């Protein structure tokens, strides 16, 4: 019994998660990586209270993130995984002023989401996640980096595990900076692509697709997927889009895809089929969305005259659902 009590205490503790997030936000892993310093040396440099900073650094030492040396605290090899440019995306996920790190702080109002079924993000910040991104360039940039980091390992699997060559034209709806579309087109030289994204991200996608030498085979439209989409393509791809939205807005997105696809186009939905309870809560708190099961997607699609033709696992945690008329 005592073991179980201790286990629950550890599971419910906020101290360590917040200490790591504050360390990242203050830039401590990078600052102490090659230049050890004491709390009293660091405090005026970072405009912090020296005693409080020393308490934080002591806990980070216990965690193995920093270590004490004769010159002061120094970031360990383990702690260096939290630095900015190490390629794992952790810094961007944990920083208080990044899109994801900021959104995670809304979990303090999880009870609101459980009571209402709506997102907690607006309770903390006064407006929804997407409005925040539209109004604050640094949050949009951080979100785009987060999506690029997530896609890095998935892209080769998605390209390899599905027959994209069946389509002459593919519209990537909400395709971020275009890394997935670029990889699909590179592997299938006969295909053409069209990416739809919001304005600033669309500009980034044009640059990425140009770097891949795909400018002559791609178009980029700066637009919302709630607006009319480019019509007449062979397939419309929604990669991790629908789980960000409640059913009402998921219907609106699917309606635009079905409208553009007409009678012959395919709708390709790539999502996790409700396999992570933790991620379900992230979707709820951040957006008021959720991961859905296969039957949920069939129900959504059927309202737009679409039927499920096939299900293909394309990554360890994502399946591609192909819908047709």
What does this molecule look like?
The protein is an alpha/beta fold and 325 residues long. The chain contains 16 helices and nine strands. The protein has a seven-stranded mixed β-sheet with strand order 5-4-3-6-7-9-8, with helices on both faces. A hairpin with a 2-residue loop joins β1 and β2. The chain is globular and about 70 Å long. The model has no long low-confidence stretch (mean pLDDT 94).
Produce the secondary structure layout.
Elements: H1 2-12, H2 15-26, H3 28-31, H4 39-46, H5 50-63, E1 66-69, E2 72-75, H6 90-94, H7 99-104, H8 110-116, H9 121-125, H10 129-135, H11 137-160, E3 169-173, H12 179-187, E4 192-197, H13 199-211, E5 218-222, E6 235-239, H14 247-261, E7 266-271, H15 277-287, H16 294-302, E8 307-313, E9 319-324
Parallel strand pairs: 3-4, 3-6, 4-5, 6-7
Antiparallel strand pairs: 1-2, 7-9, 8-9
Helix pairs in contact: 2-5, 4-5, 10-11, 11-12
């Amino acid at each position: 019994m005592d073991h179980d009590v201790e286990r629950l205490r550890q599971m419910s503790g906020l101290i360590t998660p917040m200490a790591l997030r504050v360390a990242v936000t203050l830039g401590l892993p990078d600052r102490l990586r090659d230049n050890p310093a004491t709390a009293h040396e660091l405090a005026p440099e970072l405009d912090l209270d020296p005693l409080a900073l020393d308490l934080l650094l002591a806990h980070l030492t216990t965690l193995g993130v920093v270590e004490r040396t004769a010159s002061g605290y120094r970031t360990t090899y383990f702690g260096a995984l939290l630095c900015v440019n190490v390629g794992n995306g952790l810094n961007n996920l944990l920083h208080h002023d990044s899109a994801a790190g900021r959104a995670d702080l809304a979990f303090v109002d999880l009870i609101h989401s459980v009571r209402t079924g709506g997102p907690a993000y607006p309770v903390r910040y006064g407006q929804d996640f997407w409005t925040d991104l539209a109004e604050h360039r640094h949050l949009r940039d951080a979100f785009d980096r987060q999506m690029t980091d997530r896609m890095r390992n998935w892209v080769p699997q998605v390209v390899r595990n599905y027959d994209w060559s069946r389509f002459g034209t593919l519209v990537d709806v909400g395709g971020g900076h275009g890394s997935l579309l670029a990889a699909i087109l590179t592997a299938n030289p006969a295909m053409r692509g069209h990416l739809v994204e919001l304005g600033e991200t669309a500009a980034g996608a044009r640059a990425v697709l140009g770097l891949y030498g795909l400018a002559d085979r791609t178009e980029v439209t700066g637009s919302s997927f709630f607006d009319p989409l480019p019509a007449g393509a062979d397939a419309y791809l929604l990669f991790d889009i629908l789980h960000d939205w409640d059913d009402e807005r998921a219907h609106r997105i699917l309606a635009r895809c079905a409208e553009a696809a007409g009678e012959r186009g395919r709708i390709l939905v790539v999502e996790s089929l409700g396999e992570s309870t933790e991620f379900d809560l992230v979707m709820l708190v951040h957006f008021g969305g959720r991961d859905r099961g296969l039957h949920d997607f069939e129900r959504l699609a059927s309202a737009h005259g679409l039927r499920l033709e096939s299900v293909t696992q394309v990554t360890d945690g994502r399946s591609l659902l192909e819908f047709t008329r």
